[in-house]
Write a structure and sequence with these properties.
The chain is mostly beta strands. Helices cover 8% and strands 46% of the residues. The two termini are 41 Å apart.
Length: 432
């Protein structure tokens, strides 16, 4: 276990900057959920299966308290692969509470968030041996407190600080168009951010971050978090913060044409897609801990990863509307001598409202390229091949509380070898 006091002091004294996602929804509470758990559309008065609880939801929201209960499942079937066909269903129930203390007790700019999950099922990516997980949710079976934090905003949300227990991958290296895709590197965060143990959802670790918006379209953010190389085992419930290993630091700078940087969300939705909005990001993570190299018996100090991401509306039917075409691209790199999964590339297109329906709908095409470092090839075995993954899905919102997303995926060079696989299935999401 490392000493944490010095890095925290250095973080504060050097004015490291981190991203906290501000919002402009009712009662000042914005989107606090990541990846597939974030909301594609606003819930509205009819957006919950159990309704407004006799008006209680609205009364609580007016007082600055928002509850969110949801169920999400990915049901995926490997209709063609070397493994025997299998239907794998991954299921997640999540409960969230967000509090705006400005509305509740007249403490403006102060917020609280907490969320817990139960999740479990079959992990098709592990079964097939894929580098690109077919589901952006699948990991380990667990029932736990995922994350919590206190957040303070100053100067019209140009300076924001957050402290608590939350995941780096929820906000750094996270895909801006995540709700529009199913497979992990595009449906949540870049799939190899784990190389230097940047924390992920749901086994979040203790963390603190700061965000600064010095000019209208530009932000800088940074975060320090607890490294935990086996978070599920060390903190079974998420209730007892674990300060294990070295402190990992993650930083990002971003530029957002067409939007105020103080209003940029970690993940977009139908409202934020209006107009020619975009988000361009460059980030880096660093872990000063010890790492092994395949060519040395002596551990090496320090590991890092760099990433570049771009998301941009490229065509609109109405320049102020959301119907049209969006594009996204991301690439990351880490040192090949100590990281087996050292590079990843993603690219995608999304068509908003392509079908002449009264319900919200999108069609998305995504591509993932996973490369393995040749320095990790076992002796007397062929070199790794580059794994390729392609996905096409259609998102349909038939009811305000229901989302359905059928998908088909194709993989070449599964796990860096010569196998191929075809996966078919769908995502279902219900808001309670």
């Amino acid at each position: 276990m490392k000493c944490w006091s010095l890095p925290i002091i250095v973080l504060l004294s050097a004015s490291f900057l981190v991203v906290v996602v501000p919002s402009h929804s009712q009662a000042g509470i914005g989107e606090t959920l990541s990846g597939p758990d974030s909301h594609e559309t606003g819930q509205g008065p009819h957006g919950h299966l159990f309704g407004e609880w006799g008006g209680m939801r609205t009364r609580l929201l007016n007082r600055g308290v928002r509850f969110d209960f949801q169920y999400i499942s990915d049901s995926l079937w490997n209709i063609k692969s070397e493994q025997k066909e299998r239907l794998a269903s991954w299921n997640r129930f999540r409960g969230t509470v967000d509090i705006d203390f400005g509305a509740l007790i007249e403490q403006p700019g102060l917020y609280f968030h907490a969320t817990a999950v139960w999740q479990g099922g079959g992990n098709l990516g592990t079964y097939l041996g894929l580098l690109t997980s077919p589901s952006g949710m699948s990991s380990a079976n667990t029932f736990r407190l995922d994350s919590w934090w206190l957040e303070k905003r100053w100067f019209n949300e140009r300076f924001i600080a957050r402290v608590g227990q939350f995941a780096g991958q929820d906000f750094y290296g996270a895909q801006h168009y995540a709700t529009s895709f199913i497979f992990e590197p595009m449906g949540y965060a870049l799939g190899n951010l784990f190389t230097d143990f940047e924390s992920f959802d749901p086994p979040s670790t203790p963390a603190m971050e700061v965000r600064v918006v010095p000019v209208h379209h530009f932000y800088v953010k940074s975060m320090v978090l607890a490294e935990d190389r086996n978070p599920f085992a060390h903190n079974l419930t998420g209730l007892v913060p674990q300060f294990r290993g070295a402190p990992v630091s993650v930083s990002e700078i971003g530029f957002t044409p067409g939007k105020k940087a103080s209003s940029v969300r970690a993940f977009d939705n139908v409202e934020t897609r209006k107009g020619y909005s975009g988000l361009y990001q460059f980030g880096a993570s660093y872990n000063p801990g010890k790492f092994m190299s395949p060519k040395s018996v002596t551990p090496r100090s320090g590991n890092y990863l760099l990433y570049w991401m771009a998301s941009q509306a490229i065509w609109r039917v109405d320049p102020k509307g959301a119907k049209g075409l969006d594009a996204t691209f991301a690439y990351d790199w880490s040192s090949p001598d100590i990281n087996r999964n050292n590079t990843l590339l993603t690219a995608g297109l999304r068509f908003n409202e392509p079908l002449p329906l009264r319900i919200h709908n999108t069609m998305s095409l995504g591509y993932v390229q996973n490369r393995l470092s040749q320095q990790f090839v076992p002796p007397n075995t062929p070199r790794w091949k580059t794994e390729h993954g392609v996905e096409f899905n259609t998102l349909l919102d038939p009811l305000p509380m229901l989302l359905v997303q059928p998908v088909i995926q194709y993989y070449a060079n599964v796990g860096g070898r010569a196998q191929r696989a075809v996966v078919f299935g769908f995502r279902t999401k219900v808001e309670f």
